[in-house]
Amino acid sequence: MQLVDNETFLKQLSALFESSAKSGSIWLTHKRLTREDGDVHMSSEDGSAEFPCLVRVTDGKDTKFSTVVQPSDLDQFHAAYGSMLKSSMSATLRKRDKKREKQRAEEAARKKRRLQEEIAVEGPKRGNGRRKRQRKIKAALKLEEAKKRAQERDEAKTRTKTS
Q1: What is the pLDDT of residue 69?
Q2: Which residues of 25-153 form beta strands (DSSP E)?
Q3: What string of H, E and C letters represents the secondary structure of 53-64?
Q4: Rounded to an integer, what distance in angstroms lies between the CA atom of residue 16 and that of residue 6?
C-alpha cells in the first residue's frame, strides 16, 4: 500500500472512480491513526487530544493507496472528499424503484387489514355446506395463529426499542 499526500490521494481517487464507472467496486475506509507506542484509549484525560485520520482506498485487486489527514487539514480535506464522492456516486448509483416500494407497502397494509378481519363460521355441521364450514374453521384457526405471531413480533420490537 502506498502512502501519498492529500492532493495526490484525491487525484488518484477520482481516476479510480472513472476507471470503475461501468463495473467494479471501490472500498473506502476511515480510521483514527493510533500511536505506535501502544494502545490509545478513547477517553483521554485532558480531552483535547486530536488524532490524525487514516483514509484508505482499494479496488480489491491491485490498486491500493492511503493518506494521513492531520486534524488541522481535516475540514478542508472532507469538503473536497465529500464533493468528489457526491459527483462520482450520483452518476453510478441506481434510482430507487418507487413503484416496487409502493407495492410492498400496499401488500403489508393488506396483510394487516386481513389480520383485523374476523372470519364468521356459519353453515350446517352436517349435510350440504359442511366442507365450506370446515374450510372456514381452518381459516379462522390459521388467522388466530397469524395474529399471535404478529403480536409476538410487535412485543419483541418494543422490547428491543426499550432496551
Answers
A1: 92
A2: 27-32, 53-58, 64-69
A3: EEEEEECCCCCE
A4: 15
Q: What's the sign of the alpha-carbon dihedral 33, 29, 84, 101?
A: negative
pLDDT by 10-residue block (mean), the chain, 163 residues: 90 88 84 69 62 90 90 92 86 77 91 84 84 91 90 89 81
The angle, 0 to 180 degrees and rounded to 10, between the axes of the packed helices 98-116 and 130-162 is: 110
SS3 content of the chain, % helix, strand, coil (to 5): 55, 10, 35
Q: How far apart are CA 138 and CA 118, in angstroms?
A: 13
CA distance 129 to 38: 81
Q: Give the CA-trace dihedral at 27, 29, 35, 37, to 10 degrees.
A: -40
- Residues 6 or more apart in contact with residue 30 via CB below 8 angstroms: 53, 54, 55
